[in-house]
Amino acid sequence: MSEKIGVCVVGLGIGSAHAVNLNVLKDNVNLYLCDANPERLKASMQNYRAEGFLDYKEALKRSDIQVMDICLPHHLHCPIAVESAKAGKHVIVEKPMARTLDEADAMLDAASKTNVMVMVAEHHRYISSVIKAKELIDDGTLGDILLIECKLLYGNQNGWPLVDDWRSKNEYRGGGVVLSDAVHRVNVMRTLGGEVASVYSLQPKNSYFDGEDTAVLSLRYINGAIGILPTSWATRLGKINIGAWFSVYGTEGTMVSDSYSHLRVYSRKLPESIEKPLELQLENRNIMLEELKDFVECVMTGRTALVTGLDGRKDIEICLAAYRSEETKQEIKLPL
């Protein structure tokens, strides 16, 4: 396929950010919009000079739309993705892919039957420091990996705001901070450490949300390494700098990242890092643009996306294992 592809953004909440970035790709993309709110839809249509729909089913009827970009509340991901795949549309869906493994499997099954692609909009996979860290791990710079730490803590002055919409209700989200947000970091930890053999999780006794607001996930990788992922919606950090957002420790060295575009590296295999760690200043990428560009190119060329539907399923499986661990107070082996 060499001509432009039609992409319909369904849901103009987080989808508005998708629309901004898809508009950058207008040399390859014809942008369409869909939202059930008439005022929001009209404003976006005027802003992008794009055709719009109040009902996504109208977009499914259009032969000039090849991709449905699903940016809706989590409980709507599965039914609309399945309908889209049955209509022969490729699907990119916001994280988390689904609330349950059954939902994820239904999405993958529908896509397989009509030979369309499913990609999860997991933009953390496109972070420069993650990409470089994976390169260094894969080429043996750190030796055998022992431990990976990765955290996701929200810390404005008043903690995470309580919102009175679908995001405040566990039945719509499928879970609290672990499934709704830490799934980002789960993907990073899988990218850096490989596949996970088991999960153990701890949560505080009290939560200030419907669903968990704070948790620690302990991962045991198939390769023998371990991982730790603390996450919270409820922390209050003020102006405290909590340092590295991920760290990797190996038998030959260590690396830490304190921003998406910076990596600090020490390795016994790199003499220039012995006296002073290497400070790698990397590209400050627009990671949402990169993920959407990747999927557009995949649809146009037929290659496999960086974050496939199967990847999205593996990410939520780890999150769901964490919930089962909290319930049973036991380490949970994968697959579930």
Overview of the structural elements:
This protein is of the alpha/beta class and 336 residues long. It folds into two domains: 5-123, NAD(P)-binding Rossmann-like Domain (Rossmann fold, 3-Layer(aba) Sandwich); 124-287 and 317-333, Dihydrodipicolinate Reductase, domain 2, CATH 3.30.360. Helices cover 35% and strands 24% of the residues. It has helices spanning 15-24, 38-48, 56-60, 77-86, 101-114, 128-138, 170-173, 177-193, 287-301, 309-328, and strands spanning 5-10, 29-34, 51-53, 67-70, 90-94, 118-121, 145-150, 152-153, 196-202, 214-221, 226-232, 246-250, 253-259, 262-267, 278-281, 332-333. The strands form two sheets. Strands 7, 8, 9, 10, 11, 12, 13, 14, 15 and 16 form a ten-stranded mixed β-sheet that branches. α5 (101-114) links the parallel β5 and β6. α1 (15-24) packs across α9, α4 (77-86) packs parallel to α5 and α5 (101-114) runs antiparallel to α10.
